[in-house]
Amino acid sequence: MLALCDCDNFFVSCERLYRPELRSRPVVVLSNNDGCIVSRSAEVKAMGIPMGQPYFQIQGLLRKKGVAVCSGNLVMYKEVSMKVMKLLSRFTGGMEEYSIDEAFLSLPVAAEDPLGYVSGIRAKVESWIGIPVSIGVAATKTLSKLATEMAKKDASGVMEITGRNARDVLDNTGIGDIWGIGRKTAEALNRDGIYSAGHFVDRDSVWVKRRLTVRGLMTQLELKGQPCLPIVAGTAPPKSIQVSRTWGNVLESFEDVCLAMTDNVVKAARQLRQDNLAARGMSVFLRHGYRHHGEHGYIENDVYFDSPAQCDIELIGAVKSLLGKIYRPGHGYTQGGVTLRDFSDARFRQRELFDEGGYERRSKLERFSRAVDEINGHFGERAIFPASLAVKDKKWRPNRKHLSEKRGGFVNG
DNA sequence: TCTGGGGTCCTAGGACCC
DNA sequence: TCTGGGGTCCTAGGACCC
Predict the structure, then answer these.
(1) What is the fold of A163-223?
(2) Structural domain A240-381, CATH architecture
(3) What is the pLDDT of residue A235?
(4) Does any strand C atom come closer than 7 Å to the Cβ of A102?
(5) Which candidate, A131, A189, A353, A393, has a CA 20 to 30 Å from the CA of A235?
(6) Do domains A2-151 and A240-381 have the same CATH topology?
(7) pLDDT tens digits for range A177-189
(8) Any idea what DSSP says for residue A380?
(9) Closest nt to residue A98, judged CA to C1'
């Protein structure tokens, strides 16, 4: 048996952790730049306010209903997440951190009463950390996802799908509510007369594979109780790292765009080095204008390095040169991002055959970056940063008008 | 004035190899 | 009447997830 532990309205719960006065109020958390609603307390869900709703459209209603509004603070949520994960890992040999607020747990074989066992876990996370969670138990990941959705609707906060109730559950679950079946696939299946998960498992598996490829087949098998998706313990290194932002102001000049993108690439590069990776490929994109408002567009360009890079100085230079190719004066730029990819392990660098001293130059840069990272690790994220970013008026800084006060040492980066 | 950000996996088709 | 057989690698695009 395995279990899925999912934090309830995670971002809202994090805000409530440090601002107890919010516990008795309806709360929403906003995305970057105070753009959309990305987390809602139970009261707000009950009001019918959907996930992803643009904030500006609903600002008035929220105020009228007395809903507390928080700008998102991912740095803080990540720290809370790490505490939850650490605690969860104490209860199981095999655990997969699936997202910032979810983990799959393989249950000890000895657990004779799985539901009782996960109830214990749930109570401890709630009382020791203060984050409410729901836990679903089943034989496969796909079924445990479903069990967790049911757990969220039950006062106990835990639920199990077994051979006894599985058929009933599947018959009462819309096909689009199954993990792995998205909107497009659900619509297509509806056209074939499949509306419930029960309809889906009844179809011939050859037909399912032809129709939905192997992922669809795995979903079907998992719904029948046959595990296809293993729990992957530990965290795999990422295959790409992207940092993009919608900016607080429209940026016109090349200099402003460069600074904003420098900020992005420095964040990406820090992540890269933390994971001991170096990148062969990089791409940048810019968006100008507003998507739902007249003239707008998207431009992108990429580059491959002769050898893998991981230093701020190198990567900033590459970003500037790419921007030089795509930037056009006269546009108002609203958003931009940097993606690093094609990673290799930075600890085992392949030397170039025809190298002209590049290896030594790069080693020096790497030592420099490591020193900067160490100092920042010690004295805080902002102890050392590129001088170009040392400007008073950061025009690109996103709006965060509802940021909670700094508490408990969280850096509101 | 105005709508987030960050990922993964799979497939088809083209190009190429022996 | 009618031209082999078996592969790999890469990319773009689609779909999905949180």
Answers:
(1) DNA polymerase; domain 1 (1.10.150)
(2) 2-Layer Sandwich (3.30)
(3) 81
(4) yes
(5) A131
(6) no
(7) 999 999 999 999 9
(8) -
(9) C18
How far does the CA of A406 sit from the C1' of C4, in Å? 71
Q: Where is A371: in which H helix or E strand? A: helix A358-379
Say which DSSP state A25 is in. Answer: S
Protein-contacted positions of strand B (CB under 7 Å): 1-11
Q: How many Cα atoms are found within 13 Å in the side-chain-facing hemisphere of A295?
A: 5
In a 3-state reduction of DSSP, which class is residue A369? helix
Rounded distance, CA A23 to CA A9, Å?
12
Strand C and chain A: which residues 143-162 have CB closer than 7 Å? 145
> Per this entry, what is the length of chain A?
413
Q: A277 with A310: CB under 8 angstroms?
A: yes
Strand B contact with A39 (CB < 7 A)? no
Q: Does domain A2-151 have CATH number 3.30.70.270?
A: yes
User: Rounded to an integer, what distance in angstroms lies between the CA atom of residue A289 and that of residue A302?
Assistant: 22
Q: What are the extents of the domains in chain A?
A: 2-151, 163-223, 240-381
Coil, strand or helix at A249: strand
The per-residue pLDDT for range A54-85, each reduced to its tens digit, is 999 999 999 999 999 999 999 999 999 999 99
pTM over 0.90: yes
Q: Answer whether any strand B atom is within 7 A of the Cβ of A144.
A: no
Buried b (16+ CB within 10 A) or exposed e, A243-258: bbbbbbbbbeeeebbb
Whole-number Cα distances in Å, A130 to A8, A123, A307, A347: 11, 10, 47, 39
- The one-letter code for the residue type at A162 is T
CB A341, CB A242: distance < 8 Å: no
A270-302 exposure pattern, b = at least 16 Cβ within 10 A, e = fewer: bebbebebbbbbbbbbbbbbeeeeeeeeebeee
CB A37 within 8 A of CB A53: yes
Q: What is the DSSP letter of A64?
A: H
Interval A95-119: pLDDT, tens = 999 999 999 999 987 778 999 999 9
CB A401 within 8 A of CB A301: no
Q: In Å, how far are A260, A275, A311 from A271, measured between CA atoms?
A: 18, 6, 11
